[in-house]
Amino acid sequence: MSIDNRLWSTKAKNLSPYVPGEQPKHDNLVKLNTNENPYPPSPKAVMAMQAVLADEACALRLYPEPESDELRQALADYYGLGLDEVFVGNGSDEVLALVFACFFMKQRPLLMPDISYSFYPVYADTFGVTTQSIPLKDDFSIDIKEYHQSCDGIILANPNAPTGRLLPIEDIKELIAMHPDAVVVIDEAYIDYADNVKQASAVSLIRQFDNLVITQTFSKSRALAGLRVGMAFANPNLIAALTAMKNSFNSYPLDRIAQAGAKASVEDVTYFEDQRTQVIKLRKALTQDLQALGFTVLPSAANFVFATLAAHDAADISDRLRQEGVIVRHFKQPRIKDYLRISVGTQAQNERLIEVLTHILSVDN
Q1: Alpha-carbon distance values, 341 to 32, 256, 287, 295 (Å)
Q2: What is the CA radius of gyration of the chain?
Q3: Which of 106, 89, 100 is nearest to 122 (CA)?
Q4: Which residue, 114, 117, 288, 319, is most buried by CB atoms nearer than 10 A?
Q5: Given this model, what pLDDT does residue 348 score?
Q6: Cα(294)–Cα(303) distance, rounded to whole angstroms?
């Protein structure tokens, strides 16, 4: 169907929207294409959300708490921060949009890797932010020396997506110190899957650097992608800017159910640590199984792996997996067109993936 855009603004006509991973509507698929958690959320989070619905006295007829104070306090307690160092929004995508609006609409360019979360260029286009792409090295790692140039901001996903590679904390510190007058954003959507998350995360640096913003999400390690909760940690001056921008755009971003479920998830530390550890074990086993089939797999600190198989077309492998009911993510960009991004599934899902890949390769040979 053709679209009549005669009533659209010039900006709307010229947008190139982000294309999310496919959400197929068919049953019995092994869905390994959107990096969702293979395990359910905390039972305590589910009970907390059910309690909101069961509260006939007020439940959903009242507006939610506009600043999500209880959730923010739970996050502050968990990370050893003050309430004024924590911000929450409707998914990390909204948080990142507010970050772009607050800190990057300036004169000098925003620096970002040439291969990273593909929503960043979309945000930049939406908000009119000039960007400069910095090529990753041949091994897909970030070379911070290439970021030693004039800019008004830097944004990095760490671990990076879709590569899964982790930038060491010492490199992050050096990068931030290079640019005291520019805001550096470290997008830690997958950081909880690092082997030693306390050493890998940059949250501990926000009191050392007043130009640092850390973004995270409940969608991955806390298995609440359907709830849409994201957060940012930063110096109170930067949090104040995000809050002002939020209240000029969407003053009630999180509903009562989301606030209750997210808060209970943060407080259920035992469940969180157990499921996080299980996914890390599954990632390592999946990496070994893929390597045994001849794949080259990049080092990953996320809940996915980035893999390539010499002399095989990645798009073709992706299509043939789909025919067998297994969905993975293939990107068409030139530098990564030979790679597949494969989310870590349950043991049964990973075994099915390896079974189908083994069959595909046996036919080819």
Answers
A1: 8, 35, 12, 12
A2: 21
A3: 100
A4: 117
A5: 97
A6: 21
Tell how strand 131-134 and strand 110-113 pair up. Answer: parallel
Q: What is the pLDDT of residue 69?
A: 97
285 touches 297 (CB < 8 A): no
Could you tell me the domains of the chain?
A: 11-41+269-364 (3.90.1150.10), 43-268 (3.40.640.10)
User: The tokens of 283 are what?
Assistant: 């990632």
Helix, strand, or coil here: 265? helix
Helix 119-127 to helix 91-103 angle (10° resolution) is 40
pLDDT along the chain (365 residues), means of 10: 72 66 69 95 97 79 92 98 97 94 92 94 91 96 95 97 97 96 97 95 97 97 96 97 92 92 98 97 98 98 98 96 95 95 97 97 80
Question: What are the start-end ranges of the E strands in 292-338?
Answer: 296-297, 304-308, 326-327, 329-330
